[in-house]
């Protein structure tokens, strides 16, 4: 009789593994989502490995390249700024920093949010109330005020400081969504059956609760990734995030280019191509997230 919990949970685990097969097939039948996913993956790989193949010496060119429009000569595909810096190379380095910040903040925010949301949804009672009150309290503070404090007391703001500041608040929406999902799964028949067979809390989470809520978690993470890119770029654009004095990011490059157009007479390419890269990332992340949500949605049966 001691082996009953494992034997009873084996068919459920096998069914859970088989359920991913139709999910991937439904995702593969969505060309827009698949193309968006491949483009997003390509941009991530370019940002991660591209700077390793580009010499930093290519950033600063001679005086004759000042404010030069885009050209195939000398790999100046994005043109140069008012002091002759190669904007393509700077964008590659900025893309790497923005990716590192967005992916790290999304990963840590998702892990922290899933952990607290799962505990609140499963335990309920005073623990649930306490965790939710903390989320309500932190949700009161606007991120602009938080980053003003970070900028004032932790100058210069580096990518890791920005990541930590973002993570302190990005777990809140994930925790709320996961808490509601776990609370609804907790009362289902298969969970109650596993409890009656003596399944431990750890086994219940690993084999039943988290796999069943995986769709909601994936959707929350992809949505959060796009939000982090927007938030990080916005803060950098207004000079409240990572400074160009320490590291290039997409946001501070766009802000620097916009100011250069009006103050130094730079061309539109000083910010246009970098902004286009950020726009493609946001569009692809949202389209791919919508595709995942559609693939994870149970198919409706027509009578």
Record keyword descriptors for this entry.
single chain, 303 residues, MetI-like fold, 72% helix
Plain-language structure description:
It is a single chain. With 303 residues, the protein is mostly helical. 72% of the residues lie in helices and 0% in strands. The model is unreliable at 1-15 (pLDDT under 50). It has 11 helices and no strands.
Give a quick rundown of the structure.
The chain is mostly helical and 303 residues long. It contains 11 helices and no strands. It has a single domain (20-296), classed as MetI-like fold (Orthogonal Bundle), CATH 1.10.3720.10.
By CATH reckoning, the class would read Mainly Alpha
Q: Write the CATH homologous superfamily.
A: MetI-like
**Broad shape:** elongated
Give a short account of the largest sheet: none
CATH topology label: MetI-like fold
> Share of helix among residues?
over 70%
CATH architecture classification: Orthogonal Bundle
- Secondary structure tally: strands: 0
What are the SSEs and their pairings?
Blueprint: H1 4-28, H2 31-49, H3 87-123, H4 125-140, H5 143-153, H6 159-186, H7 189-196, H8 201-212, H9 214-237, H10 250-263, H11 272-296
């Amino acid at each position: 009789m001691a082996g009953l919990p494992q034997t009873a949970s084996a068919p459920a685990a096998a069914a859970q593994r088989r359920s991913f097969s139709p999910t991937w097939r439904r995702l593969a039948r969505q060309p827009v989502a698949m193309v968006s996913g491949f483009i997003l993956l390509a941009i991530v790989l370019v940002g991660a490995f591209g700077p390793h193949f580009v010499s930093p010496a290519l950033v600063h060119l001679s005086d004759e390249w000042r404010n030069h429009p885009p050209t195939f000569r000398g790999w100046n595909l994005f043109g140069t700024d008012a002091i002759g810096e190669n904007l393509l190379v700077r964008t590659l380095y900025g893309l790497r920093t923005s990716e590192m910040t967005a992916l790290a903040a999304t990963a840590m925010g998702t892990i922290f949010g899933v952990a607290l949301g799962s505990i609140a949804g499963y335990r309920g009672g005073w623990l649930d109330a306490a965790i939710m009150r903390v989320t309500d309290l932190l949700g009161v503070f606007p991120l602009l005020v938080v980053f003003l404090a970070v900028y004032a007391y932790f100058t210069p703001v580096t990518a890791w400081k920005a990541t930590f500041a973002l993570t302190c608040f990005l777990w809140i929406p994930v925790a709320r969504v996961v808490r509601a999902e776990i609370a609804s799964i907790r009362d289902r028949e298969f969970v109650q059956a596993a409890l009656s067979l003596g399944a431990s809390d750890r086994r219940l989470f690993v084999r039943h609760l988290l796999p069943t809520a995986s769709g909601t978690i994936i959707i929350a993470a992809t949505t959060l990734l796009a939000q982090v890119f927007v938030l990080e770029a916005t803060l950098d654009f207004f000079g409240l995030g990572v400074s160009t004095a320490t590291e290039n990011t997409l946001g501070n490059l766009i802000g620097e280019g916009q100011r250069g157009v009006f103050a130094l007479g730079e061309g539109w390419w000083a910010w246009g191509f970098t902004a286009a890269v950020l726009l493609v990332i946001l569009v692809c992340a949202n389209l791919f997230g919508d595709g995942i949500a559609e693939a994870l949605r149970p198919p409706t049966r027509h009578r």
